[in-house]
Amino acid sequence: MNREIICIDLKSFYASVECVERDLDPFKTNLVVADPTRGSGTVCLAVSPKMKMLGVKNRCRIFEIPQNIRYIKAKPRMSKYIEYSANIYSIYLKYVSKDDIHVYSIDEAFLDVTEYLKIYKMNSLQLAKKIITEIYNTYKITATAGVGTNLYLAKIALDILAKHNVNNIGYLDENRYKECLWHHRPLSDFWQIGKGIEKRLNKLRIYDMYDLAHSNYNKLYKEFGINAELLIDHAYGRESCTISDIKSYNPKSSSISTNQVLFEDYSWDKARLVLKEMVEVKSLELIEKGVVTDIINLYIGYSKDCIKATGGKLRLPLKTNVYSQLLKGFLILYDKTTSMECKIRRIGISFENIQAEENIQLNFFVDDMKLLKEKKVENAILNIKNEMGKNCILRGMSFEDGATAKLRNTLIGGHNA
Q: Is the preceding peptide bond at 26 cis, omega within 30 degrees of 0?
């Protein structure tokens, strides 16, 4: 059964918020969202629509912006963007239930309006227009919308068609998709086809969706495995997944991860200190969620023109969320695999095989009483942080030269709050 899906995107969201906060028109203002303290190599989180009209690409670096363009540089304020996003989400809730909304990102959401059109006595295009108009009238944020008969078509209508329509709305059903986009190029314009997949398709002499729909499926399955099924469905504009499927999905396995791009090149010793801080933060997260792990992963990325990334995976002798046990494993990996000669710029850690703590049995080869005492201390630390703030209690290592936890505790998603 076809659904009526609206996919809404908040245009150049971060930059638009900064313009609105300054009582400026994003379509007439040159503005980039970037932290000026990070130098000319920092990535712009967003550029205003006016900057895009001048040829400046989103997610560019400061030094890539032509020097003849004068612009405002706005320091990122993630808490402000989250506030706007939450307020706009409340507009969605005026029209559809939360059960029919899938938040895809901070600035994008899918709405299944199938059961609401009779109530509002509108078609899906009219309802999309009404919602994005209310967003603009209330918060001065311009939104675009894709309307389709499934999630995929709504997203493609947004990404490829809406930007070229004066009303900022695009519409697709399966027939219109074939008529309008079967010969659209490049393939990487389509959702879930990146540059890498495009190159692999090109090697099979597939350059557009028509080619894909009429290709040799055996070759596709040989190249992409089970993922070929998704490519074939999308070639015809088909998508079986619904918002209710997304809401009810429970992954068979779970993991927790974090990574950090360092502000400058770090030595082996200083990066080791940051690793300790990162393990502490994530061990507290495991405790708060009441879960444990016995498989850890480490990723170390080096400065430009140095060796390739190193790291590895390690299975721990017990399932745990205690900092000392997790740290022991990570330091074994770090000391064994990390180059002492090359400067370090990125650190990533992750925990696999996450399980509920109550399902774990005692281990006769471990001093459980000692671990229990450490666990009580960490629970106390967690409670204090939750009540008083992340920086109200810190380990001594976080005051050493090169430590980053104190600063990162003030950030949201790695950016200024």
A: no
**b/e burial code for range 230-262 (CB count within 10 A of at least 16 → b):** bbbebbebebeebbeeeeeeeeeeeeeebebeb
| Residue 235 CA: distances (Å) to CA of 95, 151, 196, 239, 357 | 32, 14, 17, 10, 44
Give yes or no for residue 158 having a pLDDT over 80: yes
Instruction: Read off the amino acid at residue 229.
Output: E
Give the residues across from 148 on adjacent strands: 5, 172
CB 291 within 8 Å of CB 298:
no
pLDDT at position 384, please? Answer: 85
What are the residue ranges of helices labelled H in 71-150? Answer: 78-95, 117-120, 124-139
Instruction: Tell me the domains of the chain and their CATH numbers.
Output: 9-147 (3.30.70.270), 182-246 (1.10.150.20), 256-416 (3.30.1490.100)
Given a cut of 80, whether residue 320 has pLDDT beyond it is yes
CB atoms within 10 A of CB 122: 15
Name the token pair of 347: 């650190």
Nearest to 366 by CA among 324, 410, 411: 324
The H or E element spanning position 331 is: helix 323-337
Only one residue has tokens 């809404």, namely 8
State the pTM of this model: 0.79
pLDDT number for residue 411: 65
| Cα distance between residue 187 and residue 169, in whole Å | 21
31-33/72-74 β-pairing: parallel
- For residue range 255-303, list pLDDT tens digits in order: 899 999 888 899 999 999 999 999 999 999 999 999 999 999 999 999 8
Strands 291-302 and 355-356: antiparallel
Q: What pLDDT was estimated at residue 383?
A: 84
C-beta contacts of 96-102 below 8 A and 24+ residues apart: 99/243, 99/244, 99/247, 100/243, 101/243, 102/243, 102/246, 102/247
373: which 2 tokens?
């005492």
